Amino acid sequence: MSTAIETQTPNSFEKLMTGLLYSLLSWKQLEDFWPKINTQTGWYIYAIGEALPEATSTPDEVTGFIKRIDELLHNDHQESYCGIVYADNVDNPSFIKIYDPNNLGVSCGSSKNPPLPGWIMSTMPPIELHPKGIIPANRKRWWQSFLSSVNN
Fold first, then answer.
1. Is 47 helix (H, G, I), strand (E, B) or coil?
2. Residue partners of 75: CB distance under 8 A and separation at least 6
3. What's the chain's Rg over C-alpha atoms?
4. Beta carbons within 8 Å of 141's beta carbon, 6+ residues apart
5. pTM metric for this prediction
6. Euclidean distance between CA atoms 71 and 44, whole angstroms
7. According to the 3-state scheme, what is the secondary structure of 99-152?
8. Which domain of life does the UniProt lineage start with (predicted)?
Protein backbone atom coordinates (compact mmCIF):
# COMPACT_ATOMS: atom_id res chain seq x y z
CA MET A 1 0.00 0.00 0.00
CA SER A 2 1.16 3.54 -0.67
CA THR A 3 1.36 6.50 1.69
CA ALA A 4 -1.53 7.84 3.76
CA ILE A 5 -3.49 10.88 2.60
CA GLU A 6 -4.82 13.77 4.66
CA THR A 7 -7.05 12.60 7.50
CA GLN A 8 -10.63 13.84 7.78
CA THR A 9 -12.83 13.60 10.83
CA PRO A 10 -14.55 10.28 11.57
CA ASN A 11 -17.80 12.22 11.48
CA SER A 12 -17.28 12.84 7.72
CA PHE A 13 -16.89 9.14 7.09
CA GLU A 14 -19.94 8.34 9.24
CA LYS A 15 -22.00 10.84 7.25
CA LEU A 16 -21.07 9.06 4.04
CA MET A 17 -21.80 5.66 5.58
CA THR A 18 -25.32 6.67 6.57
CA GLY A 19 -26.04 9.35 3.99
CA LEU A 20 -27.60 9.35 0.56
CA LEU A 21 -25.81 7.08 -1.89
CA TYR A 22 -26.78 6.07 -5.40
CA SER A 23 -27.37 2.43 -6.25
CA LEU A 24 -25.91 0.85 -9.33
CA LEU A 25 -29.07 -1.06 -10.01
CA SER A 26 -28.22 -2.88 -13.21
CA TRP A 27 -25.17 -4.89 -14.21
CA LYS A 28 -24.74 -2.49 -17.13
CA GLN A 29 -24.61 0.48 -14.74
CA LEU A 30 -21.94 -1.32 -12.72
CA GLU A 31 -19.98 -2.13 -15.87
CA ASP A 32 -20.11 1.55 -16.89
CA PHE A 33 -19.23 2.68 -13.34
CA TRP A 34 -15.94 0.85 -12.77
CA PRO A 35 -13.96 2.87 -15.39
CA LYS A 36 -15.11 6.11 -13.74
CA ILE A 37 -13.09 5.31 -10.63
CA ASN A 38 -9.90 7.35 -10.75
CA THR A 39 -7.33 4.81 -9.59
CA GLN A 40 -4.78 7.63 -9.12
CA THR A 41 -6.91 9.39 -6.46
CA GLY A 42 -5.71 7.47 -3.42
CA TRP A 43 -8.30 4.95 -2.30
CA TYR A 44 -8.59 3.19 1.02
CA ILE A 45 -9.97 -0.30 0.47
CA TYR A 46 -11.51 -1.70 3.63
CA ALA A 47 -12.94 -5.17 4.17
CA ILE A 48 -15.37 -4.90 7.08
CA GLY A 49 -14.21 -7.05 9.99
CA GLU A 50 -10.56 -6.85 8.93
CA ALA A 51 -7.88 -4.42 10.05
CA LEU A 52 -8.30 -0.85 8.88
CA PRO A 53 -6.05 0.05 5.98
CA GLU A 54 -3.14 2.15 7.17
CA ALA A 55 -2.56 3.79 3.81
CA THR A 56 -4.14 4.27 0.44
CA SER A 57 -3.86 1.58 -2.17
CA THR A 58 -1.68 1.95 -5.22
CA PRO A 59 -3.40 2.42 -8.60
CA ASP A 60 -2.55 -1.22 -9.45
CA GLU A 61 -4.11 -2.41 -6.18
CA VAL A 62 -7.28 -0.43 -6.88
CA THR A 63 -7.46 -1.86 -10.41
CA GLY A 64 -6.88 -5.37 -9.06
CA PHE A 65 -9.55 -4.97 -6.39
CA ILE A 66 -12.11 -3.70 -8.91
CA LYS A 67 -11.41 -6.68 -11.18
CA ARG A 68 -11.64 -9.22 -8.36
CA ILE A 69 -14.70 -7.72 -6.64
CA ASP A 70 -16.52 -7.51 -9.98
CA GLU A 71 -15.83 -11.22 -10.55
CA LEU A 72 -17.01 -12.07 -7.03
CA LEU A 73 -20.22 -10.05 -7.42
CA HIS A 74 -21.05 -11.63 -10.78
CA ASN A 75 -20.31 -15.14 -9.48
CA ASP A 76 -22.10 -14.86 -6.14
CA HIS A 77 -25.02 -12.51 -6.88
CA GLN A 78 -27.05 -14.67 -9.23
CA GLU A 79 -29.69 -12.06 -9.96
CA SER A 80 -30.69 -10.26 -13.15
CA TYR A 81 -29.81 -6.96 -11.43
CA CYS A 82 -26.89 -5.66 -9.37
CA GLY A 83 -28.28 -3.28 -6.73
CA ILE A 84 -25.58 -4.04 -4.12
CA VAL A 85 -23.01 -1.37 -5.01
CA TYR A 86 -23.64 2.20 -3.86
CA ALA A 87 -21.64 5.38 -4.51
CA ASP A 88 -21.75 8.99 -3.42
CA ASN A 89 -21.41 10.08 -7.04
CA VAL A 90 -21.78 7.70 -10.00
CA ASP A 91 -19.70 9.88 -12.33
CA ASN A 92 -16.88 10.90 -9.99
CA PRO A 93 -17.03 8.65 -6.90
CA SER A 94 -15.09 9.19 -3.70
CA PHE A 95 -17.03 6.73 -1.51
CA ILE A 96 -18.32 3.29 -2.51
CA LYS A 97 -20.13 0.66 -0.43
CA ILE A 98 -20.16 -2.88 -1.78
CA TYR A 99 -22.48 -5.36 -0.11
CA ASP A 100 -21.57 -9.00 0.21
CA PRO A 101 -24.01 -11.04 -1.93
CA ASN A 102 -24.01 -13.70 0.79
CA ASN A 103 -24.98 -11.27 3.58
CA LEU A 104 -27.57 -8.93 2.14
CA GLY A 105 -30.40 -8.74 4.63
CA VAL A 106 -32.02 -5.43 3.70
CA SER A 107 -29.10 -3.54 2.17
CA CYS A 108 -31.22 -0.68 0.86
CA GLY A 109 -31.44 0.84 4.32
CA SER A 110 -35.18 0.44 4.82
CA SER A 111 -34.49 -1.75 7.83
CA LYS A 112 -33.79 -0.30 11.28
CA ASN A 113 -30.66 -2.46 11.35
CA PRO A 114 -29.37 -2.85 7.80
CA PRO A 115 -26.28 -5.05 7.40
CA LEU A 116 -22.90 -3.47 6.99
CA PRO A 117 -21.38 -3.64 3.53
CA GLY A 118 -18.70 -6.22 2.91
CA TRP A 119 -16.23 -3.71 1.49
CA ILE A 120 -15.76 0.04 1.34
CA MET A 121 -13.68 2.07 -1.06
CA SER A 122 -13.10 5.60 0.19
CA THR A 123 -10.79 8.49 -0.54
CA MET A 124 -10.89 9.38 3.17
CA PRO A 125 -9.62 7.08 5.90
CA PRO A 126 -12.37 4.73 7.10
CA ILE A 127 -13.36 4.23 10.71
CA GLU A 128 -13.53 0.77 12.18
CA LEU A 129 -16.88 -0.91 11.68
CA HIS A 130 -17.92 -3.95 13.66
CA PRO A 131 -20.02 -6.59 11.91
CA LYS A 132 -22.89 -7.99 13.93
CA GLY A 133 -22.13 -11.59 12.96
CA ILE A 134 -19.14 -13.68 12.11
CA ILE A 135 -17.43 -13.00 8.80
CA PRO A 136 -17.55 -16.29 6.86
CA ALA A 137 -14.23 -18.06 6.40
CA ASN A 138 -14.57 -17.99 2.60
CA ARG A 139 -14.74 -14.18 2.67
CA LYS A 140 -11.70 -13.96 4.93
CA ARG A 141 -9.84 -16.28 2.53
CA TRP A 142 -10.97 -14.16 -0.44
CA TRP A 143 -9.63 -11.00 1.25
CA GLN A 144 -6.36 -12.67 2.27
CA SER A 145 -5.96 -13.95 -1.29
CA PHE A 146 -6.43 -10.40 -2.60
CA LEU A 147 -3.90 -9.01 -0.10
CA SER A 148 -1.41 -11.74 -0.99
CA SER A 149 -1.78 -10.98 -4.70
CA VAL A 150 -1.05 -7.26 -4.18
CA ASN A 151 1.83 -7.83 -1.79
CA ASN A 152 3.74 -10.11 -4.14
1. strand
2. none
3. 14
4. none
5. 0.85
6. 20
7. CCCCCCCCCCCCCCCCCCCCEEEECCCCCCCCCCCCCCHHHHHHHHHHHHHHHC
8. Bacteria
Asked if residues 17 and 130 have their Cβ atoms less than 8 Å apart, the reply is no
24-33, pLDDT tens digit by residue? 999 999 999 9
The end-to-end CA distance of the chain, in Å, is 12
Query: How is the chain split into domains, by residue range?
Result: 10-151
Residue count of the chain, please give it: 152
DSSP 48-89: TTSPPPSSPBPHHHHHHHHHHHHHHHHHH--SS----EEES-
Sheet holding 95-98, edge to edge: 22-23, 85-87, 95-98, 119-122, 44-47
